[in-house]
Design brief:
By secondary structure, the chain is mainly α. The chain is built from 7 helices and no strands. It is flat, with a radius of gyration of 22 Å. 4% of the residues are buried.
């Protein structure tokens, strides 16, 4: 049984659609393949929806200095909860409009890959400015800049390697 499942999950097989992904579970689940796949997809969605909606709401609340937190009641943090509600409805709308969720994930990953090095560079620039009082004085600016620069170069190098498929 173990060999059959490992063979099914071998990376050399190219899975194109939902049907093929579900069929890959056949050695493990037998005739319950599609039920197991459906339960997994629905369960993943049930976990992802509140996490993504909450994360976007926290990010928006921190950016716009809104009251935030799930411990607050709705009247105390209306913008925070409104962002959660809006995020859920945008996710539903994307599903019903007909946008391919896999392509959306790929575009989001590409956008993140473009933006992440720029944000990291800005963090390096801001944190290396030793004349500000927003940083702890115990941190050595030279070692902080050096380690952040190494991290930035590794991020750029990794992104270039992934982009070239190696």
């Amino acid at each position: 049984m173990r060999v059959r499942v490992l063979h099914t999950l071998d990376a050399r097989h190219h899975v194109v659609g939902r049907d093929q992904a579900a069929e890959a579970l056949r050695p493990f689940a037998g005739n319950l393949t599609y039920w197991l796949f459906a339960i997994g997809i629905i369960g993943t969605g049930m976990l992802a929806i509140p996490v993504l909606a909450g994360a976007s709401s926290y990010a928006a609340a921190e950016s716009f200095k809104w009251r935030e937190g799930l411990y607050r009641k709705y009247p105390q943090a209306q913008a925070f909860y409104g962002t959660i509600i809006l995020s859920v409805f945008v996710g539903l709308a994307i599903n019903f409009i007909g946008i391919d969720p896999i392509k959306a994930l790929i575009y989001a990953a590409v956008a993140n890959g473009i933006v992440a090095p720029l944000v990291l560079a800005l963090i390096v620039i801001i944190s290396s400015n030793s004349g500000r009082d927003y940083r702890a004085t115990a941190i050595d600016p030279d070692s902080n800049s050096a380690s952040a620069s190494i991290g930035l170069s590794q991020t750029l190098w990794s992104g270039g390697r992934i982009g070239h498929g190696t």
